[in-house]
Amino acid sequence: MKRGRWIAILLVVMAMLMLAGCNDDSPELTENAYEVYYLGNEAYSLTTERREILGEDVKERAFKLLEAMKQPEKVQNSSLFAKTELVNRVTVEQGNLLNVYMNEQYSQLSVANEVLLRAGIVKTLVQLEGVQYVAIYVNEQPLIDVTGKTVGIMSAESFLDSRGENLSNYEQVVLTVYFGNAAGTGLTETSRETTISGTFSKERQVVNALLAGPESSDMLATMPQGTNLLSVSVKNNICYVNFSGGFLTGDLAVSPYVTIYSLVNSLTALSNISKVQIMVEGDSSKKFCETIPLDVPFERNLDYVMSGGKEK
Fold first, then answer.
1. Is the pTM of this model over 0.70?
2. What is the pLDDT of residue 177?
3. Radius of gyration of the CA atoms of the chain, in A
């Protein structure tokens, strides 16, 4: 089958992902209850069942959630695992990243089944406390999609919860993103290919890429550890980015100004943005690292970009 047709199938499946609401007879939500994802009774649809999962740590709970995904309790639902014995192991990295290692059978799944299973795994596991991202490996290698691209780190927002969106609403774009150089004193330009839809803004994709970190070992993550994106919006060519408190308290791998201009330069690389206003929990009166005021929007500054540092 030609590559273009596989891409079309992939987009169709992702466009048709649908989240069905929980039934009224679901168990009461507790700190140990999770919405576990299953295949719904409509084509290319996802539904959930609320399940009680116990475990001593995140790793143990993650494995139990994956096991629960194989056995729905409601007769109208089906497991997303076309092949039950797929998971080899689960590891936790840097606190907020969960790695799921699959065996060779995972690569034998059809395009539709793989995308649905991938969506269900990510949406189920990111409910675990402290887990923001999930990466899938097959035979110890990063997951590759049907276009030959590395799927990389995923969040819940990597998948749509709506159904019936026209494929013309999708746009394949290449975003310019700046990460830290190896010394943490400057910025290195790189590119990140992604699919944008009506529910996925370029601005949010840029910030999510920064939060996920670089794919190359020659670059450093620029966002403080434990930072969450609360909201992002654009008005009068100013992008307003609202972070959680972790933006001020998390550990940094780079210098403070490298963090600021990693965000600012990445966002102002978009044609509709000229300035970036950074807020923390809705407040722009704070100082980043107690030295850089956030009370005025930042403009693009390429002085920190290292020449010849573009990732291939």
1. no
2. 95
3. 20
